[in-house]
Design a protein that fits this description.
By secondary structure, the chain is mainly α. It folds into two domains: 72 residues, no CATH class; 218 residues, Orthogonal Bundle (MetI-like fold), CATH 1.10.3720.10. The protein contains 14 helices and no strands. Helix 7 crosses helix 8, helix 7 crosses helix 11 and helix 8 runs antiparallel to helix 11. It is elongated.
Amino acid sequence: MRAGRRLLAGLLVLWGAATLTFLALHLIPGDQVDAILGPSLSVTPQLRAQITAEYGLDHPLVVQYLDYLGRLLRGDLGQSYQRDMPVGRLLAEQIGPTVQLALSAALAAFVVAILAVLVTAGSGRFGRWLASVIELLAVSVPNFWLGLILLTVFSFRFPIFPAVGAAGPLGLVLPTATLALPLGGVLAQVIRQELELADGRPFAISVRARGASEVHLTLRHTLRHAVTPVVTLSAWVIGSLIGGTVLVENIFVRPGIGRTLVGAVVSRDTPVVTAIVLLSAVAFVVVNTVVDLLYPIIDPRLRAESRT
């Protein structure tokens, strides 16, 4: 029953994303035929009429919407107007660098958060205050500003890392740091708060009574409880990474879904924009559904609640 409800909710989210994308792209001022033809200097009326009929743009908006949903249900993402290639093949070519960047940023953010919490766990009130200030600064810094600062320092002032492109592991360092630092600040705040709560629970008091050190208590017991709520944030992390890659890929001129999306929006390449929005919605729904189904396994208290 629980899985059925999550599946229905996921399908509703995908339908909503597809519908909003369709409406948004059709409400943008401008002629759709011009977007399909591209920057052509001279277009005959006959060619415009042919394009209009071929793409069904002379049909009422409701008919266009139903035809659009039917093509999506058949798995037909259409043809890119500007690149003259199937949208599915275009996304297959661009998704690799984006997944690579997103995974490296998520891993780096988690490692940074854990290390920050462990380093400041026993540093007293001032140490925790200082760590909180640093985390707040990391969270508050916009991705584009952080990316420009990293480029200025580590590519132009000290040419350690390449400024553009995605060639080799070095080309991944600055984009990963740009995405990971703000994300790591949020995760560190959540983990530290949960760690302080777990530190005062009965099991922690019992471990201390057996003579265990604070390091042993943190690594073997309280940290596991503190990290568990991070699983709940997985869907939010995915959303942050998807949104962040749009900026980061353009700042560092990396290939990927985010840079493709910006180009498609500028040129009103409707099939490409629609496909990328739906791909993002699918990623969000899948992660949210998996987390919701796995959370009772991760947290035994929820299994006990479901049985009562």
